[in-house]
Design a protein that fits this description.
heterodimer; A: alpha/beta; Aspartate Aminotransferase, domain 2; three-stranded antiparallel β-sheet; globular; B: four-stranded antiparallel β-sheet; two-stranded antiparallel sheet; 6 strands; about 30% helix; binds pyridoxal-5'-phosphate
Chain lengths: ~400, ~160
């Protein structure tokens, strides 16, 4: 059967993910060292896993309220207060989702009508633009530049605002660049956001993985809490990717709108994961700090390694990626990654998978042991000696 | 964390990290790293930098046996004398005093099972004070020194994810 003619035009219009393409190439190769992964190499801390097991043991296998377990929402509220000095009412301003992924989708669906424009700074996480398109909105890329440390500058932002602009996705700490936006840098864009009456969808999934200083949420700046849909989750800092748990904190009206969609499309996030996450918040601070310290060591090691080999490498301050430039090789990102894979069996992700401005860069994950990173660096050095 | 502990942990993970690399990771100067390592070596905290080999993948036959030894403790010496005596043999890779039913755990390497069996019968068992030996041959290794032998066991993630 020719299924093509039945598929919606919107779905057809979405390009296949650049990552997916590369994934297929990598899985057909053998003996590779992969630095291509966007998830922690740690297993979930034991206290959290144990609570998951206990929850099953107790027979907690039901739906929860649409917004999520009240105890978990209280825990999230506590977490946001103690970590970022944000005050959200656990009854009205917090909802639990299936990962930050669902949260991104909900926020866009709740806000957008046909033709509404959403600003998407890029390079950034692969799902923003397709999710906007699926909602019949129009993603408008805002290129960011290594010269500006890949932050969103007031000028870049202003240049893309039109009368149709409804929302801005703020993707910091950033996947793939590792860029963060400091308080002063956020302050510089706040006036523009308020002046143009934009809603900010702030994806802060990597907030706990910020090195050299603490993460600042744009929602904590004056006038911004009410116009920020704050997205966070347990995947990265708590090493809980497979549990599928995230959350949204926002004005009650936004939560209500998103919950309307959520109750019909997913009902609730998995109860096992919800119970486990409560333990995570109250009892695993030490594990999180330890993981962050470990990432930080690897970060210094790998940035230095790439620079010594001869690549220009922006110093990332968050997440667990570096984003070195490969421009001096004269190759495109795709060419570079394919050649590196074929000749040295190291898998990294082409930067253009994260937006047009990612061309000329590669994303290298350091969610790997020092030992693995060291071996990968040796192979990359070998490669560079031939091509640089 | 104590910086020398941090250096020890890094060397345990990969003892071929250079002083410069360790300096980058820990934020110490190369000079400090060098001195700390030298100091740890002098104090015999760092004893040796070894290599973990999967012998199965080489052409060489290497058979390992773990031997539980019961020993009659000696007046004034306990198990030490017998332990030291066992340590003298080149075939013996490790000797530890253990709690429980047996007293010493001895790891022996040889080319064949027969060679090891003979070693036990002719060298180990006759030592004065050795009451009994129980030999366990290692048939397959799954993990050693924190390293998985089978590929993919240590990293269950997909190779590329967003
Ligand atoms: C920036 C960013 N946002 C969201 C997600 C999705 O996270 P979750 O596992 O919570 O759905 C990811 C995962 O890679 C990410 O990198």
């Amino acid at each position: 059967m020719n299924t093509d003619k039945y598929i919606s035009n919107v779905v057809k219009s979405i390009p296949p993910s650049g990552i997916r393409k590369f994934f297929d190439l990598v899985t057909s190769s053998k003996d590779i060292i992969a630095l291509g992964v966007g998830e922690p190499d740690f297993v979930t801390p034991w206290e959290i896993r144990k609570e998951g097991i206990d929850a099953l043991d107790r027979g907690s296998t039901t739906y929860t309220s649409n917004l999520g377990l009240p105890e978990l929402r209280i825990a999230i509220s506590y977490f946001l207060k103690t970590h970022y000095n944000l005050a959200y009412d656990p009854e009205k301003e917090i909802m639990v989702t299936i990962g930050a992924s669902e949260a991104i989708d909900l926020a866009l669906r709740a806000l957008l009508d046909d033709g509404d424009e959403v600003l998407v700074p890029e390079p950034s996480y692969v799902s923003y633009a397709p999710c906007v398109t699926l909602t019949r909105g129009i993603p408008v890329f805002v290129p960011t530049d290594e010269k500006n440390n890949f932050i969103l500058t007031p000028d870049d932002l202003k240049s893309k605002i039109t009368s149709k602009t409804k929302a801005l996705i703020l993707p910091y700490p950033n996947n793939p660049t590792g860029a963060i936006m400091k308080k002063e840098e956020l302050e510089e864009i706040v006036d523009i956001i308020i002046e143009h009456d934009l809603i900010v969808i702030s994806d802060e999934i990597y907030s706990e993985l910020t090195y050299e200083g603490k993460h600042v949420s744009i929602a904590s700046l004056p006038g911004m809490k009410e116009r920020t849909i704050l997205i966070n989750g347990f995947s990265k800092a708590f090493a809980m990717t497979g549990w599928r748990l995230g959350y949204i904190a926002a004005e009650h009206g936004f939560i209500e709108a998103m919950n309307k969609i959520h109750q019909y499309t997913t009902i609730c996030a998995p109860i096992t994961a919800q119970y486990a996450a409560i333990k995570g918040i109250y009892q695993c601070e030490e594990d999180i700090v330890k993981m962050r310290e470990t990432y930080d060591k690897r970060r210094k090691f790998i940035v230095n390694g790439f620079r010594e080999i001869g690549f220009d490498c922006f110093e990332p301050k968050g997440a667990f990626y570096i984003f070195p430039s490969i421009k001096k090789t004269g190759m495109t990102s795709q060419e570079f990654c394919e050649k590196l894979l074929k000749e040295e069996k190291v898998a990294v992700v082409p930067g253009d998978a994260f937006g047009p401005s990612g061309e000329g860069f590669i994303r290298v994950s350091y969610a790997y042991s020092i030992d693995k990173i060291k071996r990968a660096l040796e192979r990359i050095k070998h490669f560079a000696e031939r091509i640089l | 964390m104590d910086k020398s502990m941090e250096i020890i942990d890094l060397l345990c993970e990969n003892s071929r990290l250079t002083e410069k690399q360790i300096a980058t990771i820990t934020g110490l100067s190369e000079e400090e790293v060098k001195n700390t390592i030298k100091n740890l070596e002098d104090k015999k905290v760092l004893l040796k930098y070894t290599t973990l080999v999967d012998w199965e993948k080489t052409g060489r036959e290497v058979i390992t046996a773990l031997i539980d030894v019961r020993v009659a403790p000696q007046q004034g010496h306990g198990f030490n004398r017998v332990a030291h005596r066992i340590c003298q043999y080149e075939e013996v890779k490790s000797v530890s005093l253990i709690s429980g039913t047996y007293d010493l755990s001895v790891e022996v390497e040889g080319k064949t099972m027969k060679e090891i069996a003979l070693f036990v019968a002719e060298r180990l068992a006759p030592i004065e004070g050795v009451l009994s030996t129980t030999t366990h041959f290692v048939l397959k290794r799954y993990k050693k020194d924190g390293v998985f032998y089978e590929e993919g066991e240590d990293d269950k993630r997909l190779v590329v994810t967003p």
